[in-house]
């Protein structure tokens, strides 16, 4: 069975990884990757190098990242992505038995939308979720409509997908795939992490990942400056992972770089890779920002997360999430509270065991 996987960023690749590793070693599958988006961007870490290092077969490498970060540039990038994928789907419409897409990104939507005239059979991961502070919310629901198989992370999201597509068949509540990584990847010790990234995690550390809110673009500059004003008063070491290729992502990037240039305790990282990022999460004291990894993975590392603003608004959360508005005072008060709380000891609502195995079982039954 020939399986293709669409991957456009470091984020979705890290989520896919447990599934990719098991598909690769299963003789029932011929696994191929279609790599595009920020994977091929040097300014975003050229993360296709990680895919090649991991040894996965790449069928296509498609450059789609816009040079600018304006609304017009993002829109043009979507159109370009659709145009570049049209010949891919024309060539492969009889070859791929199933194509995986994941999440909610605009470039993922554009690639998948181009497949619709060719009746490509699609499987969607992480449908049914809600993020009211990002345009991604609309794309996620469209990806569900385009797909035939649905692998969701909670029962609530399964019900939501059924509402979106109009029927309840072929929807599988398997849990969050990325959490399989906790069993599959041996994380760096603090010493190993320091050797790999030159970051001393013996120091109290805050892991910061803060992306633009793409439905309120005009507020993003104020938001990131409020965040930086709060970070400026923290005593801890601050590790900032850089934003995605979103509207105003480059603007945020410049703000972070300028801030880090003035502070000895602030480090900006373009790409840790899955093992590096999870290791940093493991050794950090807490997380701060508005990333889905704070919502989905952090609880399994017993970390509290200060979720800033509305990017993740509407998403189901575990008990480790503290919601704050993007203002300096509110952020600093939450930081103080989190330090008093220590480690999170509750459950992760997204956890289910052996998610990749569950997905493979469904594929063999429904596609094979």
From TrEMBL:
UniProt cross-references to Pfam families, sorted A to Z: Epimerase_2
Matches recorded under Gene3D superfamilies: Glycogen Phosphorylase B
Signal peptide residues on this chain, from the entry's feature table: none
InterPro entries assigned: UDP-GlcNAc_Epase (IPR020004), UDP_GlcNAc_Epimerase_2_dom (IPR003331), WecB-like (IPR029767)
Lineage, broadest ranks: Bacteria, Pseudomonadati, Bacteroidota, Sphingobacteriia, Sphingobacteriales
Location of the UDP-N-acetylglucosamine 2-epimerase domain: 23-364
Gene Ontology molecular-function annotations: hydrolase activity, hydrolyzing O-glycosyl compounds
GO BP annotations, alphabetical order: UDP-N-acetylglucosamine metabolic process
Protein's recorded name: GDP/UDP-N,N'-diacetylbacillosamine 2-epimerase (Hydrolysing)
